[in-house]
Amino acid sequence: MFSRTSFSAAAVAVVLLLSAMPAAAVTVDPAPASSSAAQWSVAPATADGPDGRISLRHTIDPGAGVDDAISVTNLGTEPATYVVASGDGVVGDSGAFDIAAGDPHDSGAWIIVGGLDAGTVTVAPGETRVLPVRIDVPAGVIPGDHPAGIVVGVTRSSDGVAVTNRVGVRVHLQVAGDIVPALQVADVATTFTPSWIPFAPGVLRVETRVENSGNVRLGALAAVSGAGVDAASLEGDPAELLPGDTATLVTETSAWPIFALFGTTTVRPVVLGDDAVTAPALMEERFTTAAVSWSGLAVLLLLLVGAVAAVVVTRRRARRKADAAVSVGAASEASEAVGVGAR
Questions:
Q1: Which residues contact 337 (CB under 8 A, 6 or more apart)?
Q2: What count of Cα atoms within 13 Å lies in the side-chain half-sphere of residue 180?
Q3: What is the pLDDT of residue 223?
Q4: Whole domain around residue 39: which residue ranges?
Q5: Which of 12, 96, 141, 195 meets the CB 3.0–4.6 Å disulfide criterion with 200?
Q6: Do 114 and 249 have their domain in common?
Q7: Measured between alpha carbons, how far is 55 from 38 in angstroms, rounded to an integer?
Q8: How crowded is the C-beta side of 182, counted as CA atoms within 13 Å?
Q9: Do 298 and 327 contact (CB within 8 A), yes or no?
Q10: Does 2 fall in a domain?
Q11: Which residues pair with 154 in a beta bridge?
Q12: 250, 237 in Cβ contact below 8 A?
């Protein structure tokens, strides 16, 4: 008989805040996951066991459902009891997929995991248990992606503190209907950090905030270009944006201190994994930022001060010479006048 399970908000908070395990142990691994410390793995499965998939992926009509399964394998040397829970999918601050804390309110609540005893499953050493999974989509649900996940965890007490480690399987759940992949640039912020070497290139940092305004997940890459800017290409791992999510894409490149940089940030939407959608067109947003070499200005200021000082000194010397010449001339005239009077 199927039973619905979920971690309490307090337990998940303990996972996120107090776990001493690496981050991979407290996030949902998109592939069949294992932890050398936790000693178990979780994977998509058929009735015969793990089937090589990296996630549960389904497109379901509103009001319809589908059956699937996951496997839990105890890799340790002692029997272990695992807590199994479904939850809504989110992208955390680190950019990794995770399960939202607390009871699920969206697709996580549509998932029922069977084969459990009060939300847990006990697995003998070396044993693999297959747990049936049922997903029922309510009628009237809006089309698009509704990410979720199923996590399998163990809670242990360490120095009086409950620490939960978990691994899990991601559920790519899409509700059939009008699918709209769309991203938009919400904001662009720029800063220029000059080099301490006068007039040498500095570092241009462009932060492009992108919003997923559609109803399916997309990846996003950003690059910058412009006069005096060392153009950055659209490469690297794209940021994942679930519907309604925002992400800040940071691009750093070298740029010349030409007082003002006029450039363009380009955002390329990316189709992720095996998603069957068409990526929207490239987006471009212009920016302007001050780009001043303060060390260069200091050098120019010193040169200017030196030049002014040299001019002042030169003029003073010329004036002293002129004054000296006038004094000599006056003295000579006075001597001649005295001589005439004596004769």
A1: none
A2: 12
A3: 93
A4: 9-175
A5: 195
A6: no
A7: 21
A8: 10
A9: no
A10: no
A11: 165
A12: no
Q: Among all chains, which residue has been given the structure tokens 């490239």? A: 282
* Three-state secondary structure of the chain: CCECCCCCHHHHHHHHHHCCCCHHHCCCCCCCEECCCCCEEEEEEECCEECCCCCEEEEECCCCEEEEEEEEEECCCCCEEEEEEEEEEEECCCCCEEECCCCCCCHHHHEEECCCECCEEEECCCCEEEEEEEEECCCCCCCEECCEEEEEEEEEEECCEEEEEEEEEEEEEEECCCCCCCEEEEEEEEEEECCCCCCCCEEEEEEEEEEECCCCCEEEEEEEEECCECCCCCCCCCEEECCCCEEEEEEEEEECCCEEEEEEEEEEEECCCCCCCCCCCCEEEEEEEEECCHHHHHHHHHHHHHHHHHHHHHHHHHHHHHHHHHHHHHHHHHHHHHHHHHC
Domain boundary pick from 123, 145, 175: 175
- Residue 154: inside a domain: yes
Question: What is the rounded CA–CA span in Å between residue 291 and residue 257?
Answer: 5
Strand 128-136 and strand 65-74: pairing? antiparallel
Q: How far apart are the first and last CA of the chain?
A: 145
Say how far apart CA 138 and CA 110 lie, in whole Å: 8
Radius of gyration of the chain from its Cα atoms, rounded to whole angstroms: 36
Residue 5's CB: how many other CB atoms inside 10 A? 17
For residues 134 and 245, membership in a common domain is answered with no
Mean pLDDT, each 10-residue run in order, the chain (343 residues): 36 32 34 52 94 96 97 93 94 88 93 95 95 97 96 82 86 96 96 94 96 97 93 84 95 93 95 93 95 85 86 85 72 60 56
Gap between the Cα atoms of 28 and 60, Å rounded: 22
